[in-house]
Batch of 4 targets.
Target 1
Amino acid sequence: MAWLTDEDIIREITLKKISGVNVQIIISDAKENYVRIAKLKEYLKYAGVLSIGITKPFMHNKFAIIDDRFIINGSYNWSYGARSSEENIFIITLDKSVEEDTALLKKFQLQFQYLSHRVRAVSIADFEELNNFRQRIANPIAVISELDESEILLREEFEEAVKNSINNSLKANIQFDYTGLLQRMQKDGGGVEFVKRLINDEIQTGDMKSGFRKLQEPIPHRVDLSLEYLVSQERFQSLFEPRQVDFCLNLMKQYHL
């Protein structure tokens, strides 16, 4: 992958590694890949295999092979910026009984092996090596995609807003399992992913979570401290799917918020 900066994707790959799936990642030496490396460190923590292609010409490859059954290929870089771009991507389901599919798989496997064994490929085994590589790259902040950088910062701002809402709920004597919520948020990959899953559950079941119901109980209501209220705020709406935003906006209208 030429650019791998979407932390949600890195997190999902790491979860697959934790579950016992064998995972190998090859990324380019593009500076953008090493501005924020916390998720890559997490991947390495669980013995994920990471190689960096130091190549000339630049490694523009963008593909994945999954279980020798699926190929993901296209112009899509795995970055936040690509989410809002007009990108071409193909997900190919292979049938090994079909000769053409077997030949296609072999071509991608050979390409991956070629990239894995290029003379200048650097194998990254631990955090220290990753940090050292990052330090050798000059001024990465200057070249990172502005859209990626702004989304990462906005996600961090949202996560802080979630923590503030929980703290303010406790100050208002509305009891939450604060520690449990933080642990769940970390497990889900951060504030945005945590809230996405929560709201999806509410949409699918039609039942509000216990945290929201507790904020309904006081008179006056304190749903302004809810996670749903945060999603309804204009500055955070771009982090969520339209149906999630609409759900929260309609919910807040019931409370004239």
Target 2
Amino acid sequence: MERSVIGAIGVGLALLLIFLRVPIGVAMGLVGLGGIAALSSWNAAFGIAKTIPYELIGDWNLSAVPMFLLMGYVASATGLTHGLFASARIFLGHVPGSLASATVLASAFFASASGSSVATAAAFSRISVPEMLKAKYDPALATGCVASAGTLGSLIPPSILMIIFGIMADVSISRLFMAGVVPGILSALVFIGCITIGCMLNPRLAPPVHALYSRAQKRAAAQDVWPLPLLIVGVLGGIFCGAFTATEAGAIGAASACAIAGLRRSLNKDSLRKALVDTAEGTSAIFIIVVGAAIFSRYMSYSQLPTAMSQWLLGSLDSQLTMVLAIAVIYLILGCVLESVSIMLLTMPLLLPLLTQMNVDLVWFGILVIKLLEIGLCTPPVGMNVYVVKSALGERVPLGTIFRGVAWFIAADLSTLGLLIAFPQISLWLPDLLSR
């Protein structure tokens, strides 16, 4: 049997195990070890099982994961994120669909702190959806905007997905963070524009909230949330100015979050313990996934399947744009049935050799991949963020209503994706500017 055929069988087996709800890292690791044994020997497989975990966990870049997780968990556990929705509501009170737009704006800031799409959707399901339903907002709009705005956590730095992509593709994580800023802001603005125009055309979606806020109230709202923007700007600004690396920024961000919470007297033994335990659990889960993916990637290299795929695709596709569009379609289809991390870890070992041969800018491609994975967080039948919102709300809103609500945000995301593909400088302008 040809080596590439054994590789293809392994990909199919890994997909089957993931569909059967075997944990991603375990599924990829077991298939990878079995495949290496089939292609070489069990001694080679056990040797890789012994060396890869040590090499990866000792990787300096990967230490950014627990640090950024700790920063987000401390910010959440100590209340640094709690006033975001109320403050955004005050500043956007005059805009049609103001509560939904406030949710998007607050989600963008929350996502910058947490780096997690699911955490963002879970938080605002409890914070903003009840307020919108109380204000007689259309349930589809109220839940759809929360599920969709939650996806901003993948694109707005610091992002855990960017760190994983950077390690897998051997791309500068700092440059990826820089490249995510403008697309992240653009995505949030497109969502807000979509909400505003939709509510202007159909006022029944979001009855006007006739609330006037004084300058004193706006000043108080700004004072309530200033630590979080300061923390985010400080961390990202230090990376962009070259003061420290993305890995160092994670440690500085975690320490700064603790310091700010301490000054506000919101950091106590219980909140610190909760943040540390959540960080340990989240880091362990991510490291298991990354180790499994590394073993699977080594198996793909042994099988020579990526090389065979590259040769076939290079003969079939006549341009870089055609190839990127074909990959985008594949990702959109996979996003309907697989979770985002699974898609990235399964496909990148296959795609990286092809992308390198076609001279595709991996920073730009990384932003496209993360945008595509964002869309997958809302597409049925998997739609992780949709189920997070449903879980938080229980029987108050039917699942079909939430999927109906995310439909027009998916359309907005597809338009943003089109802009990112057509104009790569949207992603590359800032990193190119700051690297001069």
Target 3
Amino acid sequence: MKLPLNAYWAFFVSFALAIFIVELGIVNSIYFAENPDVISLALTLDFALGIPALYYFLLVRKKQAPAITLIPVIILSLIIAGFVLPSSQQTYLDWLKNLIPVLELIVLGFVFSKIRKIAHSFHEAKRSEIYVTDALTASVKQALGNVPGLGFILTEFSLLYFAFAGWFKKFSSSDPGHLPFSYHRRSGYAAIAGVVLLALITETTALHLLLQRWSALAAWIFTGLSIYSAFWLLGDYHAMRLHPIVLTREFLYLRIGLRWRAVIPLAEIIDIQNFSPREKKAADYLRLTVFGDPRFVIQCKQQVMVSGLFGIKREVRQIGLSVDDEKLFREELRKRLAMPATI
């Protein structure tokens, strides 16, 4: 029976925590005081081999984690062992700790080789992918496989990338058959983001000074989170600007920044209609707009998959949209669907 990913991780964490508690109890027992050398060797081997072996059989062997992650687990186990064993009984542990620099070099070599592979794959993927984030995702998955949490990491990295580099980027496509349609200009998102950023700067400064009186650490943690929120907001705006809706000869690529994404074959689209409030009540309806109600709704023959942040997925038949040039979008979509050009 194949267990879900979270179950394997839950088993590993539970067993590792149980080992830690048991061995902590042994160190503080009378048996350890009577046989410190023998028991310290056994406990050292438990940390150095037992926990990594547990990680291997529960996660690596079940293909729930890459084999290279076994090395950080070994290093972390040795570090934890240093806190459990008395300093006078760490002779065997000190021998094993001499291996840490070698293990670190192996990890660095692995990371460097994967970065080179990702960079090479990224240049290849950019030729076939419409969006730069799709090219990045494809190249990373090709190099690393389906690593747990990879989607979350890529989303956060992309948002921070857009926050810094988005100012200097423009969306472009080498295929003249790809028609991009922006949706951020008429939404007022830029103005709202500007107001929120200004308020964030003002409130962060005031609250930092207030928290400083109570705890310097709390003040800087709050300020760090506020700075991260500001970068996230900037990244979100640039992600929308650089991820337009794209109409091709065969597909409609839907994007709302990095929030929602879907690829709909034109053959699956029945019609494009004006938005009606009653559609919001439909179970198979999803609004893909920056703010407010959409201007029109795409009707599909059958349910299509729409993916959101943090692995959220929904199957819908009706998708509410708004674009800056609504008239041109309707005309081009109807033209490619061979529909009458009436609105």
Target 4
Amino acid sequence: KASVEALKRFPILNASVDGHDIIYHGYYDIGIAVGSPRGLVVPILRGADRLSFAEIEKAIRQFGQKAKEGTLSYEELQGGTFTISNGGVYGSLLSTPILNPPQSGILGMHKIQERPVAENGQVVIRPMMYLALSYDHRIVDGKDAVQFLVTIKELLEDPSRLLLDL
């Protein structure tokens, strides 16, 4: 949900290059990297903007099961507009996600870990997660990439807006 909202605000990250043209997609078909016995595969969560939290969770769970069983179809692996990879499920603290052409962006999420943080002059322990964004610099400006990441951060820090669909 956070990624879709950020993609709506920064549509260049939901675009792709086709020859000399930039194609802006008016839909949100999000690739979700999942583990299989043969490595990572990226099934597509179609129409992610129209799905509830529960529907997204159920679809990702089904993708994971099908990946383990080797039953994902070719159609389920084609046509994404943006990808999310979560190395955190494998314990990764930070990595550089690899772009999935012709997509212009991929978000890497990592392990949530308690870390010391300065807050109002005090050191407190907070759950923290690193995010990484790889993008096609031919069409995505660094400023937009950083603002996209800041948007994701803000949405994850206050998920009530997404939960209440505000």
